[in-house]
Amino acid sequence: MGLWLLTAVLWAPLLLLLPVRWLVVPAVWLLGLVNVVHVGFFGYLADQFFLATALRTTPSETWEFVHTLPTLTVVMALLWLLGSGWLGWTLLRWPAQSLRRSPLLRVACIASALVWGGFALYGAKKGYDGWGYLNKLDRVYPLHIVKAYLLHRQINAALFYSPQLPVPLSQPAPVQTLVVVIGESASAQRWSLLGYGGGDTNAPLRDIPGIEAIRVMAQGSNTAAALPFMLTGLSANDSVQQQAPSFLDVAHQAGFKTFVLTNSRFFDSQEDFFVQTLRRSADVYTKVGDGGDDDALTEPLRRALQDPATHKLVVLHTFGSHPDVKHRYPADYAALEDAYDNSLHYSSALLAKWTQLLDQSSRPGSPSLLVYSSDHGLVLPPCSEGYRTGLSRSTLEVPLLVWRNPALVATAEAAGMPRFSAQERETPLHGNSMVAQLVRWGVGDGAVPLQHAPQALQFQGRDWQAIATADRCSLE
Ligand SMILES: [Zn+2]
C-alpha cells in the first residue's frame, strides 16, 4: 500500500502537463494489461525475459498462447481494461485548469518534488552507480519495466561476444558422436520412467538398453529464462557478462563438426541470445521446421549422422510440448486420455527413433552419447485449468535422459562419466545445466566439475529442499 501511494504521488505532476498526459495514461493502461497477464502466469511483474519472449514470438504462437490463458486471468484483464480505461478516460478529459486548482494535486506535486529531490541527493551522496540506483527505483511502479529493458539491452549489446574457451582441453574426447536433444515444456512429473502412473508416456523408451533417466531442476519458468542454463550453464545475463562458452563452442574448439537443427518457432529476423549462441559455433545451422511435428528433425539428423567427420555433435532443438499441447503430436498419437501425456508419448517415440539412428550410425567400438532434457516444465492441473507456462513445482522438475551405446558403457566409467543415483529419480540433485556439463565432458573438457553437492541446488536463492516441501502450486 505504501509503495502504491508513493507511486501515485511521484507521478501525479505528470497529469498537469496536457500533452504528456496523452502519452502516460494510455501507456500505463497497456502496461497494466501486460502486468495483469504476467502476474496471472508467473506471479510477478513483466521482466526482461518477457521482453525477450515478446520479441521472438510469432503471431501463430501468440494465438496458441491466448488459448492457454486461465479464466481468472482473462477476467482480471477485462476488469483492468474496463476499470482503468474508464479512469484514464476521465483523467484525460479533466480540464487542466481545474486540475491545477486541486489542493490535493498541489500537495502531491510538492511531495513529489521533495521525494525525487531526496532520491537524487541520496544517490549523489552514496555515489550510486546506475544499477544500484535502479534496483531501488524499480519499487516505484512502473520503473521495473525500465530495468527490464536495460537488462534486455545489456544482453543484446554484448550478444556478439567471443566466448572464453578452456585452452587446452584436458583430455581426449571420451565420446565421438554426441546428439543433444533440447526438449520444450516437458515435466518430469508426467514421465512414466520416473514414476508417473497415469499413462505410459515413456513406453517407447522403456526397453532400450543403455538408457538412464533422472529428475533435474529447470532454472527458469519460461524458455528465455531457462534455456541459457542448458547451453552455457549460466543465466543469459551472466553468460554475456562472463563471456561464457556454450557446449557448442567447446565442442567446436575440440574439433567436433557441429550441427544445429531447429524446429523451434521464432522470428529469425533479429538476432537474439538463442539464435546467436546456437549459431556462432555451428558448422551447419538449419531451421528444419517452425513448430510443426518434431519428426521433421529425423531426416536432417539421419543426414548429419552420415557425415564423414570422425567427431560430431548434433543438436536438435525441438518444439516438444510447448502449449497449446493438443497441437504437439500427430493424430495417430492420441491413444492416451490426456493431451499433454500424448505429446510426451510422441516425444518419447522420437527419442527412441533418434537413439536407434545414432546406434545404427555408430562405427563398431566408437562411443556415442545422446543427452535429452527440457528447458522447463509446465503448470499442470490441479494447479491450473489446462496446461500452461508459469511457475509451479511441475515447471521446475524436468527429465534428463542419457543413452550410451555399448562402446561408451564399456569406457565411460574409466573416463569419469558421472553415475546418477537412484535418489535422483525421485528428487533433483542437479540443475538441467547438467546437459552442458555432460557435453563438455563428452568432448574432452574434463575440467568441468560434474557433481555438485545437493545442498547447492537452488532456485532464485531458495534451497530445493524448501521448494520441494512448499505448496506444489504456489511454491510458498
Ligand atoms: Zn520453453
Protein described:
The protein has helices at residues 2-11, 18-42, 48-56, 59-67, 71-93, 96-101, 103-126, 130-137, 144-157, 223-232, 236-242, 247-253, 273-279, 298-305, 339-361, 393-396, 406-411, 434-442, 464-469, and strands at residues 177-183, 211-217, 257-262, 284-287, 312-317, 368-374, 397-404, 458-459, 462-463. The chain is α/β, with parallel strands linked by helices and 476 residues long. The protein folds into two domains: 2-157, no CATH class; 177-469, Alkaline Phosphatase, subunit A. Strand 3 (257-262), helix 13 (273-279) and strand 4 form a beta-alpha-beta unit. It has a seven-stranded mixed sheet with strand order 2-7-6-1-5-3-4, sandwiched between helices. The chain has a two-stranded antiparallel ribbon with strand order 8-9. It starts with a helix and ends in a 7-residue tail after the last helix. The protein is elongated. The longest helix has 25 residues, at 18-42. It binds zinc ion. It comes from Comamonas aquatica DA1877. Residues 176-410 form the Sulfatase N-terminal domain. One of its GO terms (cellular component) is plasma membrane. One of its GO terms (molecular function) is phosphotransferase activity, phosphate group as acceptor.
